[in-house]
Amino acid sequence: MTGERYQLEDLLTLMAVLRDEQQGCPWDVKQNWDSIVPHTLEEAYEVADAIERRAYDELPGELGDLLFQVVYYSQFASEEGRFDFHDVVHCLTAKMVRRHPHVFPDGTLTSRRTDIPAMEVETTQVKSRWESLKADERAGREATSVLDDVPRILPALSRAAKLSKRAARVGFDWPDSRGVLAKIREELTEVEAALAEGQHEEACEEVGDLLFAVVNLSRTLKADPERYLRATNAKFEQRFRYVESALRTDGHLPDDVDLATMEHYWQEAKRQSGEPPISRSSDNVSQEEEAK
């Protein structure tokens, strides 16, 4: 990049001009709080995708797109006389300083710790203090439940993980992962029973219960369900694309062949990835192997 670099104030000016009813962009002028939300979610996922792909050269652009969403909401608020971008920066900085007394001992951004190096501070103590401070903040909002501020718009898997984590903090949890595994088996049995009785709607509801139980298992393993499901999605996509490519090489399309043929190429894709082949149609495969 050559020439003078744009600064944050330039970005705020850009947004103000885009939203100007006389000189701005018609598309930007007609946007509102609700219309931008889907774009915000999409941009957040694009950031996550770039990070998971280690596409660091794409990150400045993707992070910029995400920052642009914050600037958008700040502009809406400024136009309505509610707050502006600088208020957002102030609130964020003040909150982070308040939540890190082990870093800013005097509660000011200029104060510094002088006792022991940061890496020697007990992580468990920091996490406990962080959660305590967040609980104090929630108490100040007259919360009636530990679940109150879990956003409803979160993806279902992420929200399930947060809901169960909040409940676990107050003791509503299994003692270990074995209890969660038992719950998963119980929910799966209920799905099978509903299907056997031809109760389609009930079976669908039980699948929801099953998914929630699996999310709880993910939580006990300290694994982000969204992250690992995205990884599985990517793995499935890669293997199925291999099946399609192999079929085309042999002069076929997926619609032209039977399941056994597609299964053959699926297992070939698994072998190429170094995973032991396991038939998707075998009745003799153990539950543990199927889970893999």
UniProtKB/TrEMBL annotation:
- What EC number(s) has UniProt assigned to this enzyme? 3.6.1.8
Q: What are the residue boundaries of the NTP pyrophosphohydrolase MazG-like domain, all occurrences included?
A: 32-104, 180-239
Name a Pfam family for this protein: MazG
CDD domains given for it?
Answer: NTP-PPase_MazG_Cterm (cd11529), NTP-PPase_MazG_Nterm (cd11528)
Q: What's one GO MF term for it?
A: ATP diphosphatase activity
For the region Disordered, give the residue spans.
267-292
InterPro entries in the cross-refs = MazG-like_dom (IPR004518), NTP-PPase_MazG-like_C (IPR048011), NTP-PPase_MazG-like_N (IPR048015), NTP_PyrPHydrolase_MazG (IPR011551)
- Chemical reaction(s) catalysed: ATP + H2O = AMP + diphosphate + H(+)
Q: What class of enzyme is it?
A: hydrolase
Please list every transmembrane segment annotated in the UniProt record, as residue ranges. none
Provide one Gene Ontology biological process annotation: dGTP catabolic process
The UniProt family comment states: Belongs to the nucleoside triphosphate pyrophosphohydrolase family.
Q: What is this protein called?
A: Nucleoside triphosphate pyrophosphohydrolase
Native source species? Aidingimonas halophila
The taxonomy runs: Bacteria, Pseudomonadati, Pseudomonadota, Gammaproteobacteria, Oceanospirillales
